[in-house]
Amino acid sequence: MVQVKAIKAFSDNYIWCLTTHNSDLAWVVDPGDAQPVIAHLAEHNLQLGGILITHHHSDHTGGVAELVKQFPSIAVYGPINSPFAGVTNTLVDGDSIEVLGVRFNIITTPGHTLDHICYTHEELAFTGDTLFSGGCGRLFEGTPEQMWHSFNKLRELPKTCKVYCTHEYTQANLAFAKAVEPRNPELLQYSDKVDAQRANNEITLPSTIGQELKVNPFMRSDLPTITELIPKEFVLVTKNNEPWGNFASLRRFKDNF
């Protein structure tokens, strides 16, 4: 299995770097800035083998051009419908690619953006800005119903699957989660752990699918009680009480939290 390390960028981004113990090749996920990647590769005597892109936002793609200039033979994988022009190998739902001996399945996860994809394997998943630990990405382009369907795809992954999202948002997300489920013992325990990690400036990732099913209100939108403590002005009631309505209510509350 590959090793995954975080390369910090900007104020709270993580560029994920994949390596193996028997190769000098590395792949990176969502390089919004080239310089931290170049420095990391030089420090560890690595060559860039390829790039994985989850969606078009500049804090996930801004470093691609410089990295391709430095390593001109590399492939840049990304969604087929992306506005980002730097993708060389386009991907659609159901595709699979092999990276350093690991086969990743591609799932489309519209919501945060319409072009968003995730790279999934039974042991680890790169979820970009779709699924965060304790939260989800803001809906800039998609609908709550789309995002809930995207979350359902991720909910089907093994509970032990590690979740590598691209922002250090966990502590703030859990503050919101506790406002939604203040008596959730798993959430309170996890929040204490995260508070201790952040007090020491430690990374809180990866999480796991199983962990998120216990603490992330957006992953728990199918629970009929999940919106009980949300202010009434944010609650959306759908015709048949579909779970995506709860998801929409949570997102509206989070946007104003």
UniProtKB/TrEMBL annotation:
EC numbers on record: 3.1.2.6
Protein name, entry field: Hydroxyacylglutathione hydrolase
Superkingdom classification of source: Bacteria
Enzyme class: hydrolase
Lineage, opening ranks: Bacteria, Pseudomonadati, Pseudomonadota, Gammaproteobacteria, Alteromonadales
Keywords: Hydrolase
